[in-house]
Every structure is written in structure tokens, then in C-alpha cells.
Protein 1
Amino acid sequence: MRIVVLAGGIGGARFLRGLQQASRDADITVIGNTGDDIHLFGLKVCPDLDTVMYTLGGGINEEQGWGRTDETFHLKEELAAYGVGPEWFGLGDRDFATHIVRTQMLSAGFPLSAVTEALCDRWKPGVRLIPMSDDRVETHVAVTLPDSGERKVIHFQEYWVRLRASVPAEAVVPVGAEQSKPAPGVLEAIAEADVILFPPSNPVVSIGTILAVPGIREAIADAGVPVVGLSPIVGDAPVRGMADKVLAAVGVESTAAAVAEHYGSGLLDGWLVDTVDASTVERVEAAGIRCRAVPLMMSDLDAAARMAREALTLAEEVRGA
Ligand code: GDP
Ligand code: CA
């Protein structure tokens, strides 16, 4: 079975690990969000691609959910001693190596998709990981700074990591998305898929950004195969992160049902909500999306695998309908 998954960072990666356990001989292609990418210290950093690669490749810091295991921070300390920042973005010594290799290859003229494949040669994530686009797309967030009252558009990482999403997101803009093209292999994978899954990734700044690359949303809607998503919102709040803040920016309430309606029945065939949100199943189904309530907390690998099985079961149900 060929499965295509649109993934952000932590939510996407943990779900993917469950999917691999649930469906051992599936051929999985991951379309990764690159809207979180940022240039730091002259290096190209791709946080979501790396989180997927490290998580599936066994190199992730499990507690944190991002960055390398067994990490040290000498390089960053040395840079800080020169007064060179930013100090707010955590980059460890092991992680730096990935960004150096990536930047070197990009400078030599390789597209990001080829670079990602080369990095995956080492990590062997067991999936085909393709960035959504080889073109530069960077998510920016409009905010009003609390101290100065100044309205400013800042990089998503600055909003999330530096400001810790402490102020409202007034708008979310995937800069460059309109001019971008899907990376080689993205549309082909969607066209050849048997099932397309939206893991419990951020609906705005992860999956929303991937869908903002012209051609991807249309390809999924036209694929003619079941498209099933899992809610990242449980009990009217994100399980972790700032999905509520960026959902508010696009005028969507932080509920499992509202996120399903936001994707819409033109895109989604099936939607899983957590058992605590069982009362919203009816509302989702009224929107033309088949819905089930099952446990959606990825407390461990087995729990994530059970969620993946539920998603695949719902996909078969939708296919048969
Ligand atoms: P990021 O790029 O690291 O923020 O990761 P993603 O976009 O892939 O996923 C972030 C989303 O995953 C957040 O909105 C969380 O609410 C959601 N999430 C994280 N852990 C869980 C979980 O155990 N269950 C569910 N349902 N959602 C989760
Ligand atoms: Ca992310």
C-alpha cells in the first residue's frame, strides 16, 4: 500500500513512527513542511524535515521532541562569546553538522529535495522524505509587540521560539508560497497514493503551509483516494504547541470539529477526534466528513500505532462507501 503523509515536526514525526509500526510493508512518502525553515549563522536550518528524519532515524532527543540525542552546545557558546546570535534558537553541536552539510550541498547547486535525500542516506528513516518545495517559503507572523506597541511581521521561529507565542498571531503568511512549485516527486506521490493521511500536525503552519504550495491541495482533492486526518486539537486545546494561536489568526476556533471544517469535505474524507471530543462527531459528519472518536494521545509508540491503524481503518471505510 502506498501512503502519502503531509507532516510538520513533532506531531507528524511521532505519528509516522506509529504508522511504520502499524503498517510494516507500506510504502510511505512524507511531504514535509519547509515553511519553518530559517537561515541562522549562514546555515540553512529545516526544523520540520530534521525532526522527521531524526525521529524515524533514531537520532531524536525523545523528551524534547526536536534536536539530537546526546547533544552538547559548545559551538553555540563559542559564537555567543563573540557576541554572535541569535541566542534564542537551540542548535547543538551534532545538529550543526546536519545544517553545515545541507548548506554546503545547496551552495554547490543541489536542490533541497536532493539534499534531503542525501541526509536521509545516513539516517535511513524508512520513508521517502520529500520537502514540499525546493523553493524558499518562509512562514511569517504579524504581531503587535507588547512593550513598544509596534506592529511587526516576524519569522515564525521568532514568534514561536523567541516570543513563545506569548502575543496573539494577527496574521500568518507563508512568504514565497504563491511563487513556489511542489518539489520533484510530490505530485507524483500524491497521484500514485492509495491513501493520504494528515497526521496530528499543526493545521495552519505545518499542513496549511504545505497546502499553500500551488498544485498540492488540488492534487490531493483530485487524487480520488481516501484522505483521512487526525485532530491535533484534543479537548478544545492543542496537545502541545501554539495551534490555538495560529488557528485564531485564520479565524478558526480551537476545536477538533472546527479544524475538520477548515480543511473541508472537498479535501478530507475522514477525520479522527479524541474520545473526549466524541460529542463533536455529529457536527463533523454534518459537514460531509466521516468521523470517529478514538484515543488520540501519542503517549508511546503503541498508542501512535493504534491511531495509525484507526486512520487506515477509517480510510477503508470511506473507500468502501
Ligand atoms: P511541530 O512542527 O513540531 O509543531 O509539529 P507538528 O506540526 O507536526 O505537530 C504539532 C501539533 O501536534 C500540535 O498542534 C499538537 O497539538 C499536536 N500533537 C502533539 N502531540 C500530540 C498527540 O499526542 N496527540 C494529538 N492528537 N496531537 C498531538
Ligand atoms: Ca514546525
Protein 2
Amino acid sequence: MVSVSLKNIKKYYNQTLVLKDVNLDIMDGEFFILLGSSGSGKSTTLNIISGVDRQTSGDIFFDTQNVNNMGPVERNIAMVFQDYALYPHMTVYKNLAFPLKMRKVDRDSIEKKVNEVAEKLGLASLLNRYPKELSGGQAQRVALGRALVRDPSLFLLDEPLSNLDAKIRGQIRTELKLIQEDLKKTFIYVTHDQQEAMSLGDHIAILHNGRIEQFGKPLEIYKKPKTRYVAAFLGDPEMNFFDLKKNDGVFSNDDIDGVHIDYNGDEITLGIRPEDIMLKKQKDSNIGIKVIVRSVELFGSYAVIIADTLSGKELRIRTDNNVNVSREINVYIDRSSMLIFDKNGDVIDYENTKVIE
Ligand code: ADP
Ligand code: MG
């Protein structure tokens, strides 16, 4: 087990700065998620942690030891990728045994370790199969097992489930979480999938254009995004945003009659999560929005209503499944569930704004 710290990591590829002063503290034994869209610098960060690639400047510590000058073998890490390649001409047993054989581990110890890992990953009955006789999920577990047999102190996983179909992905996700809890080893897991991040992570760092945009526990980030980018990135369907105009020193928007905000600036945007929009008024102070329903999609456990405000702005509403809505409805929001962003996309503390009733 090991804790990992990145201090002021910068990475240039040629003249392009792809990591801009990345700082991270990853705790011993946690499931840490690096979440970001494609091209944000996730793989670069992971490769630098592994020692496969080197930072241009900054320091990496494993516990208190600076590992800047250590290669991947010395760092004792295991990596699992999206494009895991199993050896096609070897059985599952031999695939699992291979890393140990390469390290000249004796036959009895190999057998013991392979069996132990196979048991843990539910592969015990598949040891004599060849990779082509495995499902995608089983093959991915073998890839993970191959990393496990070596007892590395740190696991680095780069979008390991992206190639699997949705159902298997969900299953393996659950298994992976259990395996990590059982092993109590540090996992650093890269993904662009917010659902994976929310369900697996003890902590999540959101990477955006080579910077850590926000770091925290999954629900904390979801409930208290610090930027509009993070607010929009997390949540399905996406958060609704309203640009507010300033008239006589007060911000308002014709669609949401009843919101008047006093703020010392030139632009603000209001953010409202689809699940925070109510179909019934709960309190007198709730703010009403008149909308025309465009579609209702049923997802089983919930429904998504897509509607248009009177000014033609799309509103996404997430509600329970047994909705029966007419074409023109009033929906409601509560002041407490609104987020306010300044023109740079940073969240504004409520203390700096005043709602005029
Ligand atoms: P992610 O894994 O989040 O999709 P990457 O870390 O792979 O992002 O890439 C981050 C940025 O660095 C991208 O703009 C990518 O084009 C660039 N990049 C990655 N690897 C190299 C490389 N070896 N040479 C030049 N540019 C690279
Ligand atoms: Mg990548």
C-alpha cells in the first residue's frame, strides 16, 4: 500500500503544455478517480505516476519517497488498460502465471498465487480456457488478475472498462469495487464516464485542459460544484443554465419570474439540476416556470421531461416515473437548489448575492 502525491506537475509535449501544475494527494488504500473528457490529460497523468513517462517539472512522492528518478519496475505498480492484450495461445492459468514466471518465481508459489487470484476474481473454473473462449468481462478479469498476481503496491487503471458493453460494464464495476475493498490497495482509475466515477470513487479529481478543476468526494462535487464546467460535466441529464440580464442593477430572466438577484458584476448564470425541478409547488416561496412539454422519456426508475420555456429555452426535468403531464404545465424551483455562476464560470457564494423577493 502506498499514498501518492503529485506536486506542481507540468508536462510539455514539444511546445504544448498538456499538464498545467497538477497537484494531487491520493491516500493510502483508496479508490481514486481521475475523471475528465477526452484529451484532458488523464492518461498523461497516469503514465507519469507509473514512471512510463516523465514530467517536465514537479515532483512525485510515493509515501514520503521522491520517485522522480525511478522507473516503472522500481515503483512496483501494475497497469491495466482498455486494450488489455491476453496471450491468445495461452490458457487463463498460463496468462495469470506469466508475470511470475518472468520473475523466476518457483512453480509451487506460482500455483498457489494463481489459484488464490483466480478464486478472488471468480476465474477458478475458467483456468483451462483460452482467451477466445472468454466473454469480454471474463477476459477483463484475467487482465486484472495478471496485474494482481505480482502484489504491486499501486494499481493504475486507464479506462479499463470502456470496451465492454453496458451491462457487463456495470457488473465488473461492482466487482472491481469489491476487489479493491478486499485488497485495500491504492487504485488510481482513469475514466471519462461520470457514472463510473460516482459509483467507484472514494475521491474524484476532475481534470479539464490539463488542470485539476475540482477535487473531493463524489457527492460533495455533485452537490457543490465550484465551476460551471464541473456542474455541467456531472449529472444526467445535464444541469439547466439560465443567463440572467441586468436591468436597473438587478439580475433577472423573463422565464423565471420571481428570481431577482442583486450582485455586483456584469453577468451571472443560474444553474438548476433537472431533478431539482418540481412538478408541484412545495412552498409558497417556490418560483414557477411556465413550460410547454416537448417529450417525456420513461427510463423505468425515473422519467425525463424535455420542455420549452415561453422564450423557447430548453428545460430538462428529471422526475419519478409515473408522470402524467399535460402539454402546458407550471414547474417549480426552490431558491436553495439554485447555483449561481459568475462570467468566468466560477460559483458565487450565496453570501455575495442578495435575492430580492
Ligand atoms: P486523455 O487520456 O484525458 O484523453 P491524454 O493524456 O492522452 O488525454 O492527452 C492529453 C493531451 O496531450 C492531448 O491533447 C494529446 O493530444 C496530447 N498528447 C498525449 N500524448 C502525446 C504525445 N506522446 N505527444 C504529443 N502530444 C501528446
Ligand atoms: Mg486517455
